[in-house]
């Protein structure tokens, strides 16, 4: 275990400072000196992972401990991004997202994600995954409303189809998909919103019924 992780666990009250000294392999007196130095000059134990260098930005010891306390006692069920926003909005603690992430992970309050090896990474290929969406707007700058149906490639963001229609419907969506298939070929997957021509949703806001397919879903 890295020394900075041991310090963070002690600051987060997951272990005592005496236990931290034992884990780090130093005397209690040395650990007290380390703690006193952080309290006087600020905490600089985190590393900048992008450069492999220790950060020169000092965080007051009490601020670092308060961040860890807030997550442990109040926001334990929040993800890091949401917690970082709460620190700024509710507590006026302005630290970088990277600092907060490393602190929570080092203290053992949030699990570290394992990086996938190259053999497990899948890069999207053109034509594999398409996105279809309809946007209602006064596109022609008059009083008339139209739906703009767009189908684009998720890998390249290339637009395969774009058409203004009176209203997005099963018919207009099927026409769009037919043109894409005829001109570009058959795609692997398609994702969309929860529109009624894509999915059957028994009750608004609840999960879609995967067993009841629409005309589009059945294709």
Descriptive notes:
- Helix content is 39%, strand content 14%.
- The chain has 219 residues and is of the alpha+beta class.
- The strands form two sheets. It has a four-stranded mixed sheet with strand order 5-4-3-6, covered by helices on one side. It has a two-stranded antiparallel sheet with strand order 1-2.
- It starts with a helix and ends with a helix.
Write a compact overview of the structure shown.
It contains eight helices and six strands.
Main structural class: alpha+beta
Residue share in β-strands: 5-15%
Q: Could you give the order of the helices and strands?
A: HHHEEHHHEEEHEH
For this structure, the quaternary state is single chain
Which strands sit side by side, in order, in the main sheet? 5-4-3-6
Q: What's the number of helices?
A: 8
Unreliable sequence segments = 48-52
Largest sheet: 4 strands, mixed
Helix residue percentage: 25-40%
Distance between the termini: 54 Å
User: Shape, please?
Assistant: elongated
Number of strands: 6
Query: Gyration radius, to the nearest Å?
Result: 27 Å
Whole-number average pLDDT?
Answer: 81
List keywords for this structure.
219 residues; alpha+beta; four-stranded mixed sheet; 8 helices; 6 strands; 39% helix; 14% strand; elongated
